[in-house]
Amino acid sequence: MSQQTELSDALNRLEAAMRAAGIWNLPRPDDKAFESLEPFALDSMNMAEWLRYIFVPQLRTLLGENRPLPSSCSVTPAAQVYLPDMSEGAKLPVLLVLQKIDELLSTETDQQQDPSALH
User: What residues contact 69, with CB distance under 8 A and at least 6 apart?
Assistant: First the structure.
């Protein structure tokens, strides 16, 4: 299975896990929140909003346009700290999928990759 196919599947699983945890259908932050230069936009949105409105859409755009993917990713540690308080049963599936995405994007492949693709 190609990296792109695995990533697409993982993004679908992440959406499903976030829906199950009740953190997918969050209201969209205002436009100014998207101007943040802080990691994970933590000064203007919470981690769940960043995952929902920045991380997942940007990766889906890169896949859909067949653009280079980031050559590294380390979202899971931040998600462990900054995801909203929720039960381990709800949080764990989200973290496991994020860990898979981190691994997929941090594995060397023969595909052209761009470390700045998510900036």
Answer: 3, 4, 7, 59, 62, 63, 105, 111, 113, 114, 117
* Residue 117: closest CA among 42, 77, 63: 63
Q: How many domains does the chain have?
A: 1
Q: Spell out the per-residue pLDDT of the chain, length 119, in tens.
A: 899 999 999 999 999 999 999 999 999 999 999 999 999 999 999 999 999 999 999 999 999 999 999 999 999 999 999 997 888 899 999 999 999 999 999 975 434 444 444 43
Q: Find the CATH number of the domain harbouring 78.
A: 1.20.1440.40
| pTM for the structure as a whole | 0.86
